[in-house]
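INTERNAL AUDIT FORM
Audit reference: QA-55
Scope: verify that the stored structure record matches its stored sequence.
Auditor: D.O.
Record contents follow.
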Amino acid sequence: MSTIINAYKNAIDKAKERNWNKIFVFSDIHDTIIRPNYKAGDIPTEFFPFAKEALQMISKRKDMALGLYTCSHPHEINEYLSFFNSNGINFEHVNENKEVKTVPTGYGCYDKKPYFNILMEDKAGFDPDNDWELIIEFLNKTPELSITN
């Protein structure tokens, strides 16, 4: 089984075990969702194969919250959010996760690092040429979490 599918499976299993109603899926943009063009002032818009479809599927699921994890400039982030939204991809978080707060007595501090269950990032081993199609196959056979908190 691929690393990214293991990450999805483990996140969903942990959510079930802990009675969570959703997981947080964060993704980089360049070399992960979109092929970069290395031109300042001109955001690239060429999706990797199956990236658009996979992100649309994640956007529609009630048990997954999609977040961007990017070093893009603020004005570029706004352009990307508009571009993705026009393609049926809805990011709920950008470089932060306001849904998960640091609990003084809890494990972990999320003041500066966004909390996520899955990170899709080329520099962390995500393979955009192969992993998007695997994600689609996995999501097609994986029902949504039905846990209510």
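Auditor finding: record pair retrieved intact. Residues 3-17 form the longest helix (15 residues).
Action required: none
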